[in-house]
Specification:
Strand content: 5-15%
Shape: globular
Number of helices: 7
Helix content: 40-55%
Order of helices and strands: HHHHEHEHEHE
Distance between the termini: 20 Å
Length: 171
C-alpha cells in the first residue's frame, strides 16, 4: 500500500498499459482526497481542535486505516502534539489493547507527558528514564500502560529491551 501512489504516478507517466482493480482505485482516491474522510473525534479530549488540527487528525486516521506510515509536519506551535494525542485516544477507543510509543528529544519528554495528562488524563503514560535497570523495569512492566515516552538517546541504548513490546503506533 505504501507504494500505491508512486506506482500509480509511474504508470500514468509511461506507455505501459496496466489494469488497476477497484480496490487499488479506492485506495488512491482515499489517500488523494483525504479531506473527504470524516473520522469522529474521540470522547474525553480536554481540548477543542482548530480546523487544521482536525485535518491533521483525519490524515493520521486515514494513514492508519490503510496501514501506512506518514509525516505530520507544519510550523512549530501549531498543535501536532495534540493531533497525535487525539489520534492515540481514538485508536484506544477502537481497541483497548493498543499501545503507543513516543520518541522525542530529551528536552520534550516531560512536555509530552504533561500534554497527555492535560488532554487525555485517562491514558496511562510512563516516561522511560533513570538508570538502565530502572528503564528496563518500566519497559518490561506488566501494569497497563497506554503510552511509553522515551528520548532518542535512551531508545538507542535500550533498543534490545523493546524486542518483546508491540506498539500500534510510534511517534
Amino acid at each position: 500500500k505504501g507504494l500505491a501512489l508512486y506506482v500509480d504516478d509511474l504508470f500514468d507517466e509511461t506507455a505501459v498499459e496496466v489494469q488497476k482493480n477497484e480496490e487499488f482505485h479506492q485506495l488512491i482516491d482515499t489517500i488523494s482526497n483525504m479531506e473527504q474522510q470524516h473520522y469522529k473525534l474521540p470522547s474525553g479530549i480536554h481540548a477543542t481542535l482548530r480546523p487544521y488540527q482536525e485535518i491533521g487528525y483525519q490524515w493520521l486516521m486515514t494513514l492508519a486505516d490503510h496501514q501506512l506510515g506518514g509525516i505530520l509536519a507544519d510550523d512549530m506551535g501549531l498543535g501536532k502534539t495534540l493531533q497525535s494525542i487525539v489520534y492515540m485516544k481514538a485508536m484506544k477507543e477502537r481497541d483497548k489493547t493498543h499501545r503507543f510509543m513516543i520518541v522525542c528529544p530529551t528536552s520534550l519528554v516531560y512536555n509530552w507527558m504533561d500534554e497527555l495528562e492535560t488532554f487525555t488524563p485517562d491514558l496511562k503514560c510512563k516516561v522511560i528514564t533513570g538508570t538502565p535497570e530502572e528503564r528496563l523495569a518500566i519497559i518490561k512492566t506488566t501494569e497497563p500502560v497506554d503510552v511509553f515516552i522515551t528520548s532518542y538517546p535512551l531508545l538507542r541504548r535500550d533498543i534490545a529491551n523493546y524486542e518483546e513490546r508491540k506498539f500500534h503506533t510510534v511517534f
